[in-house]
Amino acid sequence: MKLAKVLTIAGSDSGGGAGIQADIKTITALGGYATTVVTAITAQNTNGVFGIHEVPTGFIAEQLDLVLSDIGADIIKTGMLFSAQIIETICYILENYPAIPIVVDPVMLAKGGRTLLQDEAQDALQKLLLPRTFLLTPNIQEAEILANIKITNIYDMKNAGSKIQSMGPNAVLIKGGHLDGGNLVCDVLAFGDNFEVFESPRIDTKNTHGTGCTLSSAIACNLAKGLSLIESIRQARLYVLGAIKNALEIGHGHGPLNHMWNMGTHKID
């Protein structure tokens, strides 16, 4: 199997559990090669995000152009983009690379409620990036914002997926971890006129920081390896399940996943 080159465009998490750090760990653990474009530097730990420093757009453009013009990428994954100017800059550069598929994790809110995507950036996201997106991976809160509907069940998730798909993405995976689903976590994939529901057991733990970043990076890496969309999601969810089951007791808040669980002796039951 070829070496999968995955470029992640996202913010830096000083706590190491999410953002660029989680992306690099995930891609490496799954056998890919990670390159990066840093959009913002955050001051955060397991208790939350306490500061955000936006990287100048000129430097973001330089990072992106230098990586793609030399190393290239089989796929691009975006995380925290923060501002309309950053989204505009990225989309402008990517006009030169129309064949590279993009997995977009629309990082809007931190676990503690801190805004990670400015209000004016939502318009740029919808108008500029979503039409260029192969797979969008919003959580429940993000899907509610994008679709402008309340989500309380799988039917709502399907409805939201269809609404968001009409904005341009080839497919939309709505993550149901924030939905009260009892002992199961259900994610819904909307693609074309079809839907696929993925289920996994809910793990009783507070150590879930970086789950969304990890899942989208794992899907992107699997796609870059040549797996189908559904198989990429299925295998990524198994990887995340193992990472949560073997989550690390670090810090005093929401601890990180164990991204390297599959490279050691830890195995899911």
What would you note in describing this structure?
- With 269 residues, this protein is α/β, with parallel strands linked by helices.
- It has a single domain (5-263), classed as 3-Layer(aba) Sandwich (UDP-N-acetylmuramoyl-L-alanine:D-glutamate ligase).
- The chain is 36% helix and 22% strand.
- The chain contains eight helices and nine strands.
- The protein has helices at residues 19-29, 57-70, 84-94, 119-129, 140-147, 154-165, 211-224, 229-245, and strands spanning 5-13, 33-45, 48-54, 75-78, 102-104, 135-136, 171-174, 184-191, 194-201.
- β5, α4 (119-129) and β6 form a beta-alpha-beta unit.
- The longest helix is centred in the last third of the chain and has 17 residues, at 229-245.
- The model is unreliable at 265-269 (pLDDT under 50).
Compose a concise summary of this entry:
With 269 residues, this protein is of the alpha/beta class.
* CATH class label: Alpha Beta
Q: Fraction of residues in helices?
A: 25-40%
Which range does the strand content fall in? Answer: 15-25%
Instruction: Tell me the number of structural domains.
Output: 1
Strand order of the largest sheet: 3-2-1-4-5-6-7-8-9
CATH architectural type = 3-Layer(aba) Sandwich
Strand-pairing-aware structural class? alpha/beta
The CATH topology turns out to be UDP-N-acetylmuramoyl-L-alanine:D-glutamate ligase
Number of helical runs? 8
Mean pLDDT: 92
Q: Return residue spans where pLDDT drops below 50 for at least 5 consecutive residues.
A: 265-269
How many angstroms separate the termini?
27 Å
